């Protein structure tokens, strides 16, 4: 694969609206519904969209003038949205008296975004073979860097799909605003879309159940939930560190498990997975709050390997970063390391 983009380019973008049908679990024809957000929903205003996808190793003839596959996928996506029609709406922010606001989801049928892209120089093996993160993979998702609150600052889609045709396969990705739904709903929508597309027609009976659209609130919770902020800008926070910043911008994460679990049951691969989860759970808003209040109760890190300090003798510390420019960030250099038998015998213990 030449370069880091693999010839990636966006062919088209379109708004996909829920397809109407006679079934009671699909988009209604009456005026837009207002769906109030629960405390569960609102806590995710300042986190990123949920972004996941599937790689399908199937030979696809991708040409600039051929969009039949994208059209078919967009059509089945519209039918899937028929069941999940609130996700085709937009967030509405209402300012209240007393410097407060509420956030709701309006089912106004503005639609989801559907992106058709091609990466003719990228093969399935370019994605699955490397031990490092392929740079082109980031471009396979439609809402990179987007925070959930960005869809409240201005009208943006709550959900977006992207289909990228590769040299010998395709990558189908979905991005979902975490303030609108969680990972369970994400895969419920994704699998519904998949089943509708595989069925190849309208009016088919699906094995996937329809979603339960009513939101659950605790009995003592006011509806709508009022947030003590003047505007959404006061809620959405980003840790902005300029390029080539000289200073410490490091956060510590902790994952725990027993020695027996590592040596007898799962191996180091399980520990790597736990650390991955810690990294994925990083919360920028909490980190900013912790830094702002650090001076009130300073916490100093000490290197002593004792139970009285910050480290226990049984701790394993993983430091440094794959982003560091050790080998010029060269994929070719990293690839040579992975085929170095002597090197891999030392590091590949999982």
From TrEMBL:
Record key words, sorted: Transferase
Transferase in keyword set: yes
One Pfam assignment: Transferase
Gene Ontology molecular function terms on file: acyltransferase activity, transferring groups other than amino-acyl groups
PANTHER family xref list: FAMILY REGULATORY PROTEIN, PUTATIVE (AFU_ORTHOLOGUE AFUA_3G14730)-RELATED, PROTEIN ENHANCED PSEUDOMONAS SUSCEPTIBILITY 1
Protein name as catalogued: HXXXD-type acyl-transferase family protein
Protein source organism: Miscanthus lutarioriparius
Species lineage: Eukaryota, Viridiplantae, Streptophyta, Embryophyta, Tracheophyta
């Amino acid at each position: 694969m030449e370069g880091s983009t693999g010839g990636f380019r966006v062919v088209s973008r379109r708004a996909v609206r829920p397809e109407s049908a006679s079934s009671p679990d699909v988009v209604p024809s009456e005026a837009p519904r207002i769906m109030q957000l629960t405390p569960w929903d609102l806590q995710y205003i300042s986190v990123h969209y949920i972004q996941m996808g599937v790689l399908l190793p199937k030979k696809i003839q991708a040409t600039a003038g051929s969009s039949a596959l994208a059209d078919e996928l967009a059509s089945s996506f519209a039918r899937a949205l028929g069941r999940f029609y609130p996700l085709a709406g937009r967030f509405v922010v209402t300012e209240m008296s007393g410097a407060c606001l509420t956030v709701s989801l309006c089912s106004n049928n503005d639609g989801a975004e559907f992106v058709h892209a091609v990466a003719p120089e990228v093969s399935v093996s370019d994605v699955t073979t490397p031990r490092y993160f392929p740079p082109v993979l980031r471009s396979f998702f439609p809402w990179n860097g987007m925070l959930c609150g960005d869809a409240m600052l201005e009208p943006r889609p709550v959900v977006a799909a992207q289909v990228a045709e590769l040299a010998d396969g395709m990558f189908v990705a979905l991005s979902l605003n975490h303030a609108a739904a969680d990972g369970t709903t994400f895969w419920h929508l994704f699998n519904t879309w998949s089943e509708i597309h595989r069925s190849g027609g309208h009016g088919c009976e699906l094995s996937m159940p329809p979603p339960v659209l009513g939101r659950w609130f605790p009995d003592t919770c006011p509806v709508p939930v009022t947030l003590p902020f003047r505007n959404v800008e006061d809620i959405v926070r980003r840790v902005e560190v300029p390029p080539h910043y000289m200073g410490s911008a490091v956060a510590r994460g902790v994952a725990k498990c027993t020695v027996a679990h590592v040596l007898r049951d799962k191996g180091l691969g399980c520990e790597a997975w736990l650390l991955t989860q810690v990294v994925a759970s990083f919360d920028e808003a909490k980190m900013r709050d912790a830094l702002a209040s650090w001076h009130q109760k300073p916490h100093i890190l000490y290197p002593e390997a004792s139970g009285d300090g910050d480290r226990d003798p049984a701790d394993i510390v993983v430091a440094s970063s794959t982003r560091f420019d050790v080998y010029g960030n060269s994929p070719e250099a990293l690839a040579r390391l992975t085929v170095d038998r002597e090197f891999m015998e030392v590091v590949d213990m999982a």
